[in-house]
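Exercise 7.
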Amino acid sequence: MEEYAREPCPWRIIDDCGGAFSMGLIGGGFFNMIGGARNAPRGINRRLLGGIVRVKERAPLLGGQFAAWGICFSTFDCTFAHIRGKEDPWNSIMSGAAAGAVMAARQGPKNMVGSAVVGGILLGLIEGMGILMNNFASQAYRPMDPRMAPEDPVGLGEQQGEGEGGMMKGIFG
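Solution. The predicted structure, written as tokens, is:
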């Protein structure tokens, strides 16, 4: 369902690149702030300054790495969607594997294969969890057979006999 709310394919690549850069920048900012503060000398001012310096140095780098992966993934996703003629989870799984392989191309073919397997498995897990969550959430909106509907809880108390001690009769005498 969320696939229909996304941008069309040429613009989706730029949109996903910007989103990935933002996620990497914000996440890198948090983690580098903590790391910089932990490795700084004692004192609140020095720790705060150490965290800020590390964020300024390393958070944009992590944002750029996320953006590179995002643009690579989205390019493959659009390519597979165009070749196959449909949008489904297999496009994302294949795109994750292809993006993992391309991002590890400088380390050689052995690392490319390993990275492709990891990327495909991770995207498969993500897509699988999305499908499971979607099916679980849609259970509430499925029509129910009136014969299988639960009984009215008000009527249950009358059937068991109200004047005989109630529900806690066996526990408290």
